[in-house]
Amino acid sequence: MLNNFPTLYPDELFYSAIARYKQANAIDSKLGVERDIYGIERHHKVGKSVYFPQRLGTFIDRLPFYAKLSVDELIWGHTMFPFYTAFMTDVKTNTIFDAIKSGNQMSIENMVGIPMSKIKTPKFLRYCPCCYEEDLNKLGESYWRRLPQVPGVLYCPTHKVLYKNSAVDITTANLDYVCADSDVCNEALTNDENAATYKALDKIYVRNVQWLMQNRISLPPNYISSFYIDRLREMELTSYVGNIKMTEFLEAFQGHYPTNYLELMQSAVSIDERNSWPKLFIRNTAKNRSALRHLLMLQFLKVQLAKLFEIEPVIGKRQRKKSNRVPIYSSEERKEQWLMLLAEHPNANRKELSKINNGLFAWLRIHEREWFDKVTPKNIKTRNLKWNL
Ligand SMILES: [Zn+2]
Question: What distance in angstroms lies between residue 109's CA and the mean position of ligand 1's atoms?
């Protein structure tokens, strides 16, 4: 039983609360604190991530009955989960939620696509020097917030000052639980020459990030790609059918943002480059696309986030007549539809599933047999008991 775990502050990372627990109870080893938190010994694997700790269900079970924290609240309110899953489908979001709750062989960073992403996460834990001072005065201590850790967030929305790197390098393999105190948060405020250029853009970005972190949202499969095409069509940046006028689109996108802002956002755009990221981003439906770039794209398209998540009917690409032979969906899209269907009918066997969507069932069995067999439950054969007796 874990009797004196501290109450989490608003937007505090769970990692930060563990660090405060470790310090308050003068526990000197990492292993000691993990034994308390998860009730485990050394040979058990714990996800030690700062962003996405695992086995949070086990932690919640160890709290006394009067602790009012739920696993749901912990994951949505105190890990980076809501930001990184915001543009994913229900199926994927739920899979990741369960992995954080119950533990998983794979790191959650891998599941949300961080190592493969062009958008690198900050190397150090970040903080606002003014929030830090205020915390000391009000609370007697400070803590690590989630917002400064989001890639692309530059300024504290309360104090309008640049976030600073602390001395806590979260890429170190053997990272300890470190509190936000004067040993590691000692960067002075600096004059910010670029403020005028970036502040307005950053303000919108931060507001959108906060919105994503406060709303429990997810998108239907394939929805956002069609949504993007519809908005681009309204801006006359696609043909009637929905083919993107690529050069015009890239020029408009580049013109919308100052070049050095895009560089800061790890998203510089070159019009000549064959594989310019907005080009791949708009076209590719299967790949994991970073939330940061979704937000840049939506800001360019002047879309309010709430509007996007109202999930109104979308058109996307229109089919040309006589093009019936071209497959409408890619393999990845079909797979995603199938996973949705499986999630909606968790108890159905193959026969029943084939009745629900025979076209999709048949297509996947022909074209993606190995994958299909892996994810689809087998028909349960009922044995004739007489033979066994
Ligand atoms: Zn601040």
Answer: 27
Structure-model confidence comparison of residues 193 and 99, the more confident one: 99
Q: What is the pLDDT of residues 296-338, one digit of tens each?
A: 999 999 999 999 998 888 888 887 655 455 556 788 888 888 9
What residues have a C-beta under 5 A from ligand 1, the ion? 128, 130-131, 156, 158-159
Question: Which pair of tokens denotes residue 277?
Answer: 């990221």
Question: How much is the CA Rg of the chain, to the nearest whole Å?
Answer: 24
pTM: 0.80
| Claim to verify: residue 105 and residue 150 sit in the same structural domain | yes
**Average confidence score pLDDT of the chain:** 88
Q: Ligand 1 centroid vs 157 CA: distance in angstroms?
A: 7
How close is the Cα of 166 to the center of ligand 1, in Å?
14
- Predicted pLDDT of residue 383: 44
- Is 115 found in the same domain as 237? no
What's the 50 CA to ligand 1 centre distance in angstroms? Answer: 21
7 CA distance to ligand 1 middle (Å)? 21
How far apart, in whole angstroms, are the C-alpha atoms of residue 33 and residue 106? 23
Residue 159 alpha carbon to ligand 1 centre in Å: 5
Domain interval for residue 367: 331-375
**SS3 (DSSP) at 162:** strand
Q: Which one of 276, 308, 340 terminates a domain? A: 308
Q: What is the dihedral of CA 10, 13, 16, 21, to 10 degrees?
A: 70
How many whole angstroms from 190 Cα to the centroid of ligand 1?
Answer: 14
Q: What are phi and psi of 76, to 5 degrees?
A: -75, -30
Extract the runs of DSSP E, i.e. beta strands, from the chain. 124-127, 164-169
Report pLDDT digits (tens) over 167-217: 999 998 888 999 999 999 998 777 777 677 789 999 999 999 999 999 998
